[in-house]
Amino acid sequence: MISATTKIAKIPSNRSIYSEGEHNPTIESLLNGATNGMKLNDSLNDSTPKNHLDMLFSLAKTDHQESIELLQNLSCSSGEIALYSQDLLCKLIARENETSYEAACSVRSGCQVLVTKYSSGIITDEVLNTHPKLLLFAASKIKGDEGKVDTTPSLLVKSKIEAFNRKKIKPQWWLDIKLENGQFSTPKPDDIKDKDYLVEKLDLLEDGACQFRAALVIKYAKQDWLTADKASILHKIEDCTDPNQKPISDLVKQSICDALNDIINIVGLNVPAQFKDAFEEEHFAENIYTETIQSKHFNLYSRAGIEAAINKDSSTEQEKYFLDLLTDIIGQKLVKALSIPLSSKENKAYAVPTGNHYNLIVPVDYFSKTQTM
C-alpha cells in the first residue's frame, strides 16, 4: 500500500490529488487538523502537516488546480495550518520558488471567487474579516501582468477591500503595502509574514502638544498620555529627576538652536533684518521655549507662535517663508531628539505626521490595563 505521504509527494502535475480513491486520507487529515487546531509539526500520516503543505506547494506552483484550491480552502480555517497555507499562497502570488505566472493567476482568480461568492456559503464575511490576506491575494498585481488584458479586480472585490480599509483595526502589512485603485502592489511574503499583527490608529488631540504626546505614549506605553492635559505634559517635559538623562526641555531648546543653524549654514538663508535682533540674543532659544511651550500654548510649530515669542510680525513673503521653514525644521529635529519612530520599520508603535499634526499607530495589545502615568 502506498503511504499517505507518498500520495502527495509523488503525484505528478497531470494527476488528481484524490486519485487514490474517492478520498485521500492525508487530505482529509489536513482538513480535520486545520479545523481542530493541529500544530504544523504534529504527527500526521507518517509526516507532519508542514511537510504535507510543502508538498502541495510544490504541485501548486506548476498550476496544479486541485492543490491551489486545497491551499485556499485550508487558508479559510484557523490556527497554524491556515496561517502557513496563507504564507504559501503569498509565495505563489509573488512567484517565489519558480512559481509559474499561470499558477499565480490561478491563486488570484480563485481568491476572487472566494471573496465574491461568500453569499453562496463558500466564505462568510466573518472569515474574510479575520483573514484579510484573501483580499490581498484576490487583488494583487503579479509579475507578468504587464501587457496583459485588464487585470484589475472587479468592482465587487474592490468594494470588499474598501469596506475592510475603513476598519479601525487592521494588520500592519495592510498599512505598509501600496493600495491604489483597489489593487495591491505585488506582496513580499517575508514582509507580509513579519507585519501580520493587528494595529489601530489613535487620534491625538489637536492642541499643539501632539508631538510630545506621541513621544510619551511610545516611550512609556502608557495610555494616559493620549489625553493628558498640557500641564501634565509640561511637567514631564521639564522633569529633571533622572541624572542620566537630559530633560525634554533641553532637547527642545537645542532643536531650536540647531534648526536656526541649519537654515543659515545648510539652506543658506540669512535671518531677515526685522528678526535679527531677536535671533541674535544669547538666549533666543530659551525665550522661544518659554513663550511657546512653558506658557502651555504649545504653538512652537506655527509661524504665529514664533512671531508671538519674538514679538515680531512677518510682513513679507520672505519673512513668512523663513519662519515657516524654521518651525518645520524644529519639528524634524524634535522627531530625532525625542526618538519618535515614523514607520513600522522602526518600531511597532509609531507616529504618523500629517502637516503639523501627529497621530499614532499602535498594536492592539500595546497598553497594559494597569499602566498609569
Short description:
With about 375 residues, the protein is α+β, with helices and mostly antiparallel strands. About 50% of the residues lie in helices and about 5% in strands.
Descriptors for this entry?
single chain; 373 residues; 2 domains; 4-stranded antiparallel sheet; two-stranded antiparallel sheet; 18 helices; 6 strands; elongated; disordered N terminus
Structural class: alpha+beta
Proportion of beta-strand residues: 5-15%
Q: Could you state the order of secondary-structure elements as H and E?
A: HHHHHHHHHEHEEHEHHHHHHHEE
Per DSSP E runs of 2 or more residues, the count of β-strands stands at 6
Total domain units: 2
Number of helices: 18
The biggest sheet amounts to: 4 strands, antiparallel
Rough outline: elongated
Which value, in Å, is the CA radius of gyration?
Answer: 28 Å
Poorly predicted ranges? 1-6
Q: Within the largest sheet, what's the order of strands?
A: 1-4-6-5
Q: What is the terminal-to-terminal distance? A: 67 Å
Mean pLDDT: 90
Estimate percent helicity.
Answer: 40-55%
